[in-house]
Specification:
Radius of gyration: 17 Å
Strand order of the largest sheet: 1-2
Helix content: 40-55%
Strand content: 5-15%
Order of helices and strands: HHHEEH
Shape: globular
Number of strands: 2
Number of domains: 1
Largest sheet: 2 strands, antiparallel
Amino acid sequence: MGSVPSFREQFHSELKTDMDLERLPSGKFATNELVFACAALAYNILRFIGQLGLIGNRVPVRHPAKRRRIRTVIQELMYFAGRLIATGRRFKLRFSQHVELHAAAFCRVYDRLAYG
């Protein structure tokens, strides 16, 4: 009978699997340290984005939760269609009509990060 993993083990496992760090890229410690530091920064940013965009009333995921896995954040907020449109001196980001909830969550995160 296996034991239930602690939160620390769960986060460690999630960092390794969802950020694809099962095997480090180099045999040199300094290189692996830099890769792991960059992955930890990306992990923390994605966790913050997940807390802002995927927790609440209007969310694109299937069930309510207090915390989302990094894989869910990547799938729900990063892997959906958008188009960058340049008009005059401005750029616009346009989303498909089929991803309305995803776009709303993305806009909430963007507004919170851009305007506080």
